[in-house]
Amino acid sequence: MQTVGFFGYSLGAVAFFVFSLLLVAARNHTVIARWILFSTLVTVVANLVAAVQIKLGFSLQYVMLADAVKIASWSVLILSCNVEVKTIRELLFSFHVRQYLGIWGVLMLVCAVANNWLNYSYEYLFLLFVLLNLWVLVLLEQLYRSADLQVRWAIWPLVIALASMAIFDFVLYAQATMVEGIDFDFWYSRGFISTMMMPLLLITTRRINNGAVRVFVSRNVVFYSSILMIAGLYLLMMAFAGYVINYIGGEWGTLISIIFLILGGVVLAVLLITESLRRKLKVFIAKNFFANKYEYRDEWLNLIETLETTSAESHYQMATRIMMSKLNLDGGAIAKRVTDLQFKVEYAEGLALEDDFNQQLVLLSQYCQSQGWIVDIQEYVNSPGLYPELSLDVEIWLEKKIALVVPIFIGRAFYGMFILSGHEDVKPLNWEDRDLMFAISKQLGNFLSLHEANDKLAESKQFDAFNRMSAFLVHDLKNVQAQLTLITTNAQKHRDNPAFIDDVFETVESATERLNKVLSQLRNKQLVQSQSKVVDIGELLDKVVQQCNVREPKVSVEQSQQCQMPLDGETFFSILNHLIQNAQEATKSDGWVKVSLVADDKQARVTISDNGTGMSEEFINKRLFKPFDTTKGNAGMGIGVFEAKQFMHSIAGKIDVASEEGRGTEFCLTLPIK
């Protein structure tokens, strides 16, 4: 057999040497062509070392070292089909090649230490070659499965050649691991196997266009390759365990190890066939080893642009149509939860959901809230076990051609559901489709919540505007009431005075105008804009003081100058009346309230001062000018000072306040003269 082995290895060396000469003659300078030449020469050396070892009888470790280099060179060739490089240096420094060579080098070093320094015979070397050949099979499976038809036609001879040598060596070294020695009948046959595979390599070399093949490794390829790798490692572990049992089990060891291996194989088959495990493994591989199917940044920007540019009758319609467009469906609805047992269909298009469908929505909502899953109706029909604790009347859903139900969560709160229907050939959703649908659903849920909040805010603002208008109207009515009170208070004393009668008619006329204004505001449901006209400020101030002096303490005018300027005299009268009245209410009856008017060519300054209770600085800064905040309880509206500030700003004036608790307050109104 040694002569046969020597002849086989020698024939293999000659065959691959001729192959290398053909490669050189082809003058193909691409990276893959040059690496095929390198791998071929390594194979020539490996066959020569094996042939010489048979004649000289030196250690098999040298042959195995040459074989390890040969396996690495062909593995790098397989990996090179998936990288875009222009030089050998770039190939060797590419990520996957560096990763492979790094692991290969570590394994070689560990096995060398275990065999030579720790004197552990050849077991670790045998196990090393089992792993290396299994790795070659995984790489070949990835390469072939991920290639398209044209590339498969070009590479199938290469795959068959390398896989045949790897499988033969895998069996050889697996058996050697089990029995602690190489079966030399197999060992001497390796040269002939290598020789027979050379023509297949030659065919692949001729078929590869310009020496270049580019293959995209798909997710399914990695999944199946991972399954193959897991299965191989698992079986090796079982084999090692069986060996241990056989070693320590005595007479019963062989029987127990066989039973153990069979049981391990059954367990492996059950695990790999289990659909849930396969799904989880597939998702894990896709999430951790591949880029996302969707570019989420682009999806996010597109969604924002769609929300900004799409016009619709309502935000419910817009959200439903966006979700329909993402899945290319022609029907959809949005069902909002009113209570745990009641849903309201806010919008529906191409899908009719009657009241009797509410019970189905309740059942589905309970499941969505507990699981947080998107429900694929067709998947539920085919595999109800994937949706535990969900019980639906399938016929109703299929009759309406409902395909998907996407729950809507705002934060952690369940809002409702998108119910989508369409054609029957809806593609099943993978985990990335579901993640995208969840992301879009969450964003649309926030969009709906924001619009609903805006609607409520708009409604609240309408009520607020009405309440504010009512407050100003009541304030005006109080001023009218004060004018009429002035008449009734002085009627008994001055009823026979013609001048008093003239004032009464003037006051009634002014009150009538104010009441007409109030009625106009009520009819139009908004405040009426007053007209500006030239007003004598001094004269207006005297009228206010006269009206306010019906109560204690009396108001005195310290200084008054003639000053005329265009403004809304009626509103300014009301402001002065309110500020003076506030000063009187804050001052004891034996105190004093003073007003003054100082004017020049540019501005007029009205000052109202008292020696009343005063105000703190904090009250002035935080509450004084705040609308509807009053210290008078139900007797006040809390808008007088706010109205004064708003009016002064509208005429480019200003209002200043100086106050000290227990000593009094001073308001200074500065009006620009135009």
Summarize the helices and strands and which ones pair or pack:
Elements: H1 2-26, H2 31-56, H3 60-80, H4 88-92, H5 95-117, H6 123-146, H7 149-179, H8 184-207, H9 219-248, H10 253-273, H11 275-289, H12 296-309, H13 315-327, E1 331-339, E2 342-349, H14 358-371, E3 375-376, H15 377-382, H16 394-399, E4 402-410, E5 413-421, H17 431-494, H18 498-524, E6 533-536, H19 537-548, E7 555-559, E8 564-567, H20 569-585, E9 593-599, E10 603-610, H21 617-624, H22 640-650, E11 654-660, E12 664-672
Parallel strand pairs: 7-9
Antiparallel strand pairs: 1-2, 1-5, 3-4, 4-5, 6-8, 9-10, 10-12, 11-12
Keywords: Kinase, Membrane, Phosphoprotein, Transferase, Transmembrane, Transmembrane helix
Pfam families: HATPase_c
Enzyme class: transferase
What is the global morphology? elongated
Q: Bin the helical content.
A: 55-70%
Taken as a percent bin, the fraction of beta residues is 5-15%
| Mean of pLDDT | 77
Main β-sheet description: 5 strands, antiparallel
Description:
It holds the Pfam family HATPase_c. This protein is an alpha+beta fold. It is built from 22 helices and 12 strands. It has helices spanning 2-26, 31-56, 60-80, 88-92, 95-117, 123-146, 149-179, 184-207, 219-248, 253-273, 275-289, 296-309, 315-327, 358-371, 377-382, 394-399, 431-494, 498-524, 537-548, 569-585, 617-624, 640-650, and strands spanning 331-339, 342-349, 375-376, 402-410, 413-421, 533-536, 555-559, 564-567, 593-599, 603-610, 654-660, 664-672. The strands form 3 sheets. A 5-stranded antiparallel β-sheet has the order 2-1-5-4-3. The radius of gyration is 47 Å and the shape is elongated.
